[in-house]
Specification:
alpha/beta; Rossmann fold; seven-stranded parallel β-sheet; six-stranded parallel β-sheet; 15% strand; globular
């Protein structure tokens, strides 16, 4: 018997574990019988498949991708779309823009999600990319999790607001409410960070700020994640004499027990929009010390905003010191963040909005949402 469920073709620049990939896995797991999924990772990395339930109907088409050969890729991807005939093409971020170009003369319905930018666009938009997005996303429905991205999409990219959907990320609140607590060696409060070890996350800033903050304070730093920056970061830790106080855990498939063992969550990125890890920290009732990028300050409870600081080592060190010295302040800010997550970021709201879009509906109404939030 033919399976008449809609086929969604998802294209990721990478299907490594990251915010957008984890969000997709959560949506697919929530509705395992609603759609068939095909996933293409432009870099061949399918690590996040571990997050998908066995009940999800998913395939991984194998196709040759020629890095840097845009014209051939566009023609090839167009043939793939014609052969697969998915009900919807779902692309994400700049790394999949060639698929938007392949569908410029529309073959299938197109949803495009933007979650943020790499280090090359941390301080501003590259003109070539602005023009490319302006031209090739104008017929797509563009999904954004952040108000900062909304302003960029309507202002710089000049996309029609009627084609943009603002859907904030959501979190599984129950997953962080209680359960096993991880244990780390050493003494003192734990500053924790969960992220891929990539350049735009600027872990050297985190390590240097930690070193400044703990010169006279007992504390530990736990870095959860893996990636190409790890060898250099380990050398920096050793050079600063912090090897006994900094722990690299590597990739951890289920980090919730680690969050429960943190006292402070840190994120020192050069560029973010609405990071899932900050939502996880809020759900775990943690205070956050972070760089003031994207929507981070707006996401958090008002009580937490004093420790969202410029992209500066000393400013971050000051934020760490303030939280390390005041356990009661940590607890009160953490409780306020948990309450904010319960009020605004329950994942069921996000699930319903994405399900409506995947089913061909409108999803969230951006104009109303942007005016009332």
């Amino acid at each position: 018997m033919a399976d008449h469920r809609p086929l969604l073709l998802h294209v990721f620049s990478s299907f490594a574990v990251g915010g957008a990939q984890v969000r997709f896995a959560a949506i697919a797991n929530r509705y395992p019988d609603a759609w068939r999924h095909a996933i293409i990772a432009m870099d061949g990395n399918l690590e996040c498949r571990e997050r998908l339930s066995a009940e999800v109907d998913v395939s991984y088409p194998d196709l040759a991708i020629r890095k840097g050969d845009t014209l051939r890729n566009i023609l090839h991807f167009r043939r793939v779309l014609q052969a697969l005939r998915p009900n919807t093409l779902v692309t994400g971020n700049w790394g999949t823009i060639e698929w938007a170009m392949a569908n410029a003369l529309p073959i299938v319905r197109h949803l495009h999600t933007e979650d943020g930018f790499g280090p090359e666009e941390r301080d501003g938009q590259l003109p070539r990319r602005v023009w490319t997005r302006r031209i090739f996303l104008r017929r797509a429905t563009v999904v954004l999790p952040s108000r900062t991205l909304w302003r960029i999409a309507t202002g710089q990219w000049r996309l029609n607001a009627s084609r943009i959907r603002y859907i904030p990320n959501g979190i599984d609140l129950a997953r962080f409410a209680g359960g096993t607590v991880a244990e780390f060696p050493g003494e003192g409060p734990v500053i924790g960070c969960v992220a891929a070890l990539r350049a735009e996350k600027n872990f050297p800033r985190l390590i240097r700020a930690f070193g400044l903050a703990v010169a006279e304070l007992p504390a530990r730093l736990v870095i959860v994640g893996d990636g190409p920056e790890r060898p250099g970061l380990e050398r920096l830790v050793a050079a600063l004499g912090l090897s006994e106080r900094v722990l690299f855990t590597g990739h951890v498939p289920e980090p919730a027990p680690l969050y429960r063992a943190f006292d402070i969550f840190a994120l020192t990125s050069d560029t973010e929009q609405m990071p899932m890890t900050v939502l996880e920290a809020m759900a775990a009732a943690l205070p956050v010390a972070a760089t003031d990028v994207g929507d981070i300050k707006e996401m958090l409870a008002t009580e937490n905003r004093a420790t969202i600081v410029p992209r500066d080592d000393r400013a971050l060190a000051d934020a760490f010191r303030a939280l390390l010295r005041q356990p009661e302040l940590r607890r009160s800010i953490g409780a306020a963040n948990r309450a904010r997550a319960e009020r605004d970021y329950d994942q069921e709201i996000m699930f319903r909005a994405y399900a409506a879009l995947f089913d061909g509906g409108e999803g969230a109404s951006p104009a109303a949402t942007m005016e009332t939030r």
